[in-house]
Design brief:
Order of helices and strands: HEEHHEHHHH
Strand content: 5-15%
Shape: elongated
């Protein structure tokens, strides 16, 4: 055997003995996942097939708080719930790009665009309260319910 082939053989045997389970350290967060799940990501597939992966451990200097979303997506694309937080979605888009998941990137882009449109529609529907003069503005007392109307007219 050539030296590289021996290493590859050792790594393959070692993985099969442990049912293809990998330990991952992603930005300080520890994960355990099956190789078949991780290989759904082109980036992870390349990293896991490297002959330098002997003991099913992989360290990536990425955002570990977002990697759980990546694992959820890899596990079942159809049941994946996009995070409601827009900032998390933006950061997750970058992670999806890194891990080679263009459909997740597109899903997040659509979600962000839809939410931006919803926000614009909501803002357009709101009736802005603008006082015509300083006298018409409510005093702090009125804001907290301390003032009462002087008169009331009922129209039937």
């Amino acid at each position: 055997f050539a030296p590289g082939a021996t290493q590859q053989l050792f790594a393959t045997l070692n993985r099969s003995l442990f049912h293809d389970i990998f330990e991952l350290d992603i930005g300080g967060y520890r994960f355990r996942a099956e190789g078949k799940l991780l290989r759904r990501s082109p980036t992870l597939k390349i990293l896991l097939s490297s002959p330098s992966i002997f003991f099913e451990e992989l360290f990536l200097d990425r955002d570990g708080s977002l990697f759980n979303f990546i694992l959820q997506y890899l596990e079942d694309e159809e049941l994946f719930n996009v995070p409601s937080d827009r900032q998390v979605c933006r950061f997750l888009q970058a992670e999806a790009h890194y891990f080679g998941l263009p459909r997740l990137e597109a899903l997040l882009s659509e979600h962000l665009a839809r939410n931006a449109e919803d926000a614009k529609t909501f803002e357009a529907k709101k009736m802005p309260f603008q006082a015509s003069s300083e006298k018409a503005r409510l005093s702090p007392k009125c804001l907290f319910g301390a003032c009462r109307p002087l008169s009331m007219t009922v129209v039937s």
